[in-house]
Amino acid sequence: MTRLTLTLLSLLALPATALAQDAGDPAKGEKVFAQCKACHDVEKGVNKIGPTLKGLIGRNVASVPDYKYSTAMLDFAKTHPAWTDELFLIYIENPKKEVPGTKMAYAGLKKPDDRANLLAYLKTKQ
Fold this sequence. Notes:
mainly alpha
């Protein structure tokens, strides 16, 4: 193969590699979730200081019954109707930046791998 062919093949493989890295590891994500356990649960109907995270991805933002959301989160829900993978990853990096006035006191997950792993774990709790 020529060098050009090899270069083109390697460029075509990049998106698949990036997606594989972004997929996250649910087992590692369960360990990251230990930081969330004081305020959140992953069982249906179990709200703590924060709402349950069971079924988070795909769920409407600020929609857990019997949970009193902040005005800031209710306003956020007007422009962000549902939790997507992308929205969760942006939000959990710095919740107070994304939703100024949120009740969530957590500073956020700065490491992309931690965010991806947490997302992978939460997706096992749909």
